[in-house]
């Protein structure tokens, strides 16, 4: 799981009212058995140019955009798929040679190639660096660290039935571990699909960014102890126990300089990419969802 991934950060605009109503109606008609395949082709309410993004694709992507409101999860998933298609089309138009680097997905490689080719992102000057440092001293510290162990109940992203079974089994293990916490290592060896099972599920010390984004984000929200719910990722459902947590010490300006510069550069790149994506949406045409301004 030691994979670094840098997602595209985009705020999802609201779905068109008609598309949202139609999508909700379609899901409601299928709520009796969500693992049962839809009859006929999946409906399409979102489209980029002449490329349809059907509800089946959006449903598969939604597992990576968990939210209390399913409509918010759907918006985020649909936006991600729209952005992915816009970037793919523009890379093809510019005839960019895209080769994924170690630990990088093809989508991340396309974004990197497009940013390098089409965007001019100026570096922050000394005054901007110091201004940000002074305004964010409390947030600038050595990396937080978490020592954790987990039990991976594997399920393919597209296999809805398997993911439901993995979640149910995970919840059963959580209940069992509440009663008998000393059995975590035993359960990891018996049930986990991760090589860490041989170490009782131990992942060692993890810093932010060391794992895939959806695991990283949820892990650092946990307090020490056994998580009450499973953590869902592209790999399946994880039963997680936080063994130790260490908050990093504050950084002096000289120690924080490179981090601040990298952050401001990332923000400038994200803002430029955000504006560029709106240009691409106008160029290729997007139906069924509005990217935020």
UniProtKB/TrEMBL annotation:
GO molecular function, one term: peptidyl-prolyl cis-trans isomerase activity
InterPro entries per record: PPIase_dom_sf, PPIase_PpiC, PrsA_foldase, Trigger_fact/SurA_dom_sf
Matching Pfam families: Rotamase
Domain PpiC: 143-244
Organism expressing this protein natively: Thermomonas aquatica
Region (Disordered): 22-41
EC number: 5.2.1.8
UniProt-listed PROSITE patterns: PPIC_PPIASE_2 (PS50198)
Family affiliation: Belongs to the PpiC/parvulin rotamase family.
Keywords: Isomerase, Rotamase
UniProt KW Isomerase keyword: yes
Protein name per Swiss-Prot or TrEMBL: peptidylprolyl isomerase
Reaction(s) catalysed by this chain's protein: [protein]-peptidylproline (omega=180) = [protein]-peptidylproline (omega=0)
Lineage: Bacteria, Pseudomonadati, Pseudomonadota, Gammaproteobacteria, Lysobacterales
């Amino acid at each position: 799981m030691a994979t670094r991934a840098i997602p595209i950060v985009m705020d999802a605009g609201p779905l068109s009212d008609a598309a949202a109503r139609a999508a909700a109606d379609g899901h409601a008609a299928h709520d009796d058995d969500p693992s049962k395949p839809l009859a006929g082709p999946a409906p399409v309410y979102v489209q980029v140019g002449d490329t349809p993004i059907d509800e089946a694709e959006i449903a598969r992507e939604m597992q990576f955009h968990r939210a209390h409101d399913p409509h918010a999860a759907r918006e985020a998933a649909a936006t991600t798929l729209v952005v992915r298609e816009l970037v793919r089309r523009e890379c093809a138009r510019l005839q960019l040679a895209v080769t994924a680097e170690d630990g990088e997905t093809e989508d991340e490689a396309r974004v990197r190639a497009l940013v390098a080719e089409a965007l001019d992102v100026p570096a922050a000057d000394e005054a901007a660096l110091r201004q940000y440092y002074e305004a964010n001293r409390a947030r600038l510290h050595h990396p937080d660290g978490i020592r954790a162990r987990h039990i991976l109940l594997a399920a393919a992203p597209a296999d809805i039935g398997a993911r439901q079974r993995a979640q149910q089994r995970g919840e059963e293990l959580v209940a069992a571990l509440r009663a008998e916490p000393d059995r975590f290592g035993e359960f990891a060896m018996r049930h986990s699909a991760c090589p860490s099972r041989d170490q009782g599920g131990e992942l060692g010390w993890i810093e932010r960014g060391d794992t895939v984004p959806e695991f990283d984000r949820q892990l650092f929200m946990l307090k020490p102890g056994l998580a009450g719910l499973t953590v869902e990722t592209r790999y399946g459902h994880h039963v997680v126990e936080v063994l130790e947590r260490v908050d990093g010490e504050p950084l002096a300006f000289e120690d924080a300089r490179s981090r601040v510069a990298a952050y401001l550069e990332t923000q400038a790149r994200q803002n430029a990419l955000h504006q560029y994506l709106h240009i691409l949406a106008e160029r290729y045409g997007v139906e069924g969802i509005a990217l935020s301004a």
